[in-house]
Amino acid sequence: SGINMQIFELHFNPKANKDRVFDTFIYEPENLYEKRLGNLCMAGELEKQLLRNPRFLSELSCTVKDEYYSSQLKNTPEKNLKNALKKANDFLDAESKKGNVGWLGSLNFGIVNCNDFGLHFTKTGDIKIVLIRKGEFLDIGENLEMQSDEAYPLKIFGNIASGKLVPSDKLLILTNAAFSAFSQNSAFLKQLDEAINEKALKEVIKANKAL
Q1: N or C: which end of the chain has fewer CB within 10 A?
Q2: Per residue of the chain (211 residues), what is the pLDDT tens digit?
Q3: What is the value of pTM for the model shown?
Q4: Is residue 166 classed exposed, middle or buried when 0-12, 13-18 and 19+ CB atoms within 10 A define those classes?
Q5: Quick one: CA torsion of 187, 188, 192, 198, rounded to 10 degrees?
């Protein structure tokens, strides 16, 4: 029996971060052949004043998604994700060659793949991938070291980490600002851990909006 996954997108707009743009992207299998590859969840952040391509984050996420689901279906999800990251690096290389280099040093982007109880994830820049399990708040992306090469093509996305989920787990992709606010409030984390559906989650966020 597969994992019954609920995916929620919650956007915040801190007054102190008006110079940044942030977006999330959720992709699910479109047919039975893709179902074994699971879901793709992505979140990205970029400094607005450096953004020459307003669709940059969206185009990056689509590049990852298109390659992930169009790669050979007989491959493992991890193999297809590796192929997708190669395409993402090619996309970033092409953007830089077009003169769009504002994202260099300012791109924060996380990618999470969940297929049944399997988990694969990667990130670049200052973004957090967090696992909430039995009351523990674990920064599972903390030791995920990304590699980058000075020579082209740019290799912004590199390593992939893998793991296993249990039904009560919650995964968060957070900006550093959100992570800093959330991780300092143990009562809020406990409420977040206990939320079982979207309504309960929104109520927890609303009650703690002062964060």
Answers
A1: N
A2: 344 567 766 665 555 566 788 899 999 988 888 888 999 999 999 977 666 777 999 999 999 999 999 866 678 899 999 999 999 999 999 999 988 888 988 899 999 999 888 999 999 998 999 998 887 888 998 877 544 444 444 689 988 999 999 888 888 898 888 888 777 777 777 777 777 677 777 787 777 665 5
A3: 0.85
A4: exposed
A5: 140
DSSP labels for 3-45?
------------GGGTTEEEEEEEE--SSHHHHTT-EEEEEEE
Q: Left (φ > 0), alpha (ψ -120 to 50) or beta: where does 38 sit?
A: left
Cα 45 to Cα 35: distance, rounded to the nearest angstrom? 28
Residues 95, 53 contacting (CB under 8 angstroms)? yes
For 157, residues 6+ apart whose C-beta sits below 8 A from its C-beta are 85, 88, 89, 109, 111, 122, 124, 146
Q: What's the residue count for the chain?
A: 211
